[in-house]
Design goal:
Keywords: Hydrolase, Magnesium, Metal-binding
CATH superfamily of the largest domain: HAD superfamily/HAD-like
Radius of gyration: 24 Å
GO molecular function: metal ion binding; phosphatase activity
Mean pLDDT: 83
Protein name: HAD hydrolase, family IIA
CATH class of the largest domain: Alpha Beta
Number of domains: 2
Shape: globular
Helix content: 25-40%
Pfam family, one: Hydrolase_like
Number of helices: 11
Low-confidence stretches: 1-8, 10-15, 21-47
Strand order of the largest sheet: 1-16-15-14-2-5-6
Distance between the termini: 61 Å
Cofactor: Mg(2+)
Strand content: 15-25%
CATH topology of the largest domain: Rossmann fold
Amino acid sequence: MSQSSGGGGAFTGVYHAFKEECNRYLQRKRIPVSSKGSKMFNMTNTEARVEQLTAESFVDLLPEFDTFIFGGDGPMWLREGVITDVSHLANLLIEHKKEVFILTNDTNYSRQTHETKLSQHRFNKKLNKDRIVTPGLLAASYINANVTSTKKGVYLLSSGGIQDDLKEHGINLFGPGPDALASLPNEGEMFTVDISSTDVCAVIIGLDRHLSFKKLVKAASYLKNPKCLFLAINDNAVLGDPNEDVVIPDAGALVAALKKASGREPITLGKPYSPGYEYIKKNWNIDESRTMMICTNVNCDVQFGRNHGMRTLLIASNPHELDEMEKMRSSRCDALPHYYITSIPTILPQNK
């Protein structure tokens, strides 16, 4: 009996060790291990499933998360408005003692403008400016960490509130606004653009509504100095627009021109790249395996979440987005969300 008992004990030990290793493997794959069992991805190249959440299943998931990051470009803002239900969801999460952040690629609004907007739409005051991460904040943080002299100039090719975020963090910037060659220039004017007046330590390029040939000449010339930082807001090709007949180039289209002219590759600040994650990780020490990215964009935000070990919730409010997920199953498993909803109210308690 003692031998039998010993063998059973050894088997039990091996079993528990195997079970623990399986759990560690699942965590590395970012597949949640839930007592209720989660209808998650079958992580193969030929099949993947996305779970549609309900109010009940969302509440069941909450204990598995400490942090929620909202992609501020889609689910938070609709042009000049705000999706009202987002405030209910964010406030619910804060009531459950969750850390909540907004991470946006948008340069139109400063962090202060975002905070004012949140207050107007009755977001919990704990979701304040400190928890809003914008391209301007990321650019300023990167420059301040990598440039020894703050007196050097930063050439900014971007419009909107990014200027306020940069100035708030002591960045000496120049460049915003119109700057074009004469309407009827002589052929030699483009070769005499003055670039000598400022010692430039960085060039930042985003969505600049005043982009001109002259600005590209200046930016590419500054970037001839290998010590001059080259920062891109994002590499998105076009902006989403309700008018399907109009194509609005996004920052990525402008960045492509400067990359070609300068022969250099930029450090891209926005999602799906790492600076936003690294900033939040450094300042709040989040556990990415217990973090959910809530978003409306697959290629940018879902990819960001997956790249950094988070689980992702896609707000698929348009029928074509569901069709797109279906098409992506076999070829783009890595860009599929873990969960999806068709609208925010579907995961809110009835009394919200």
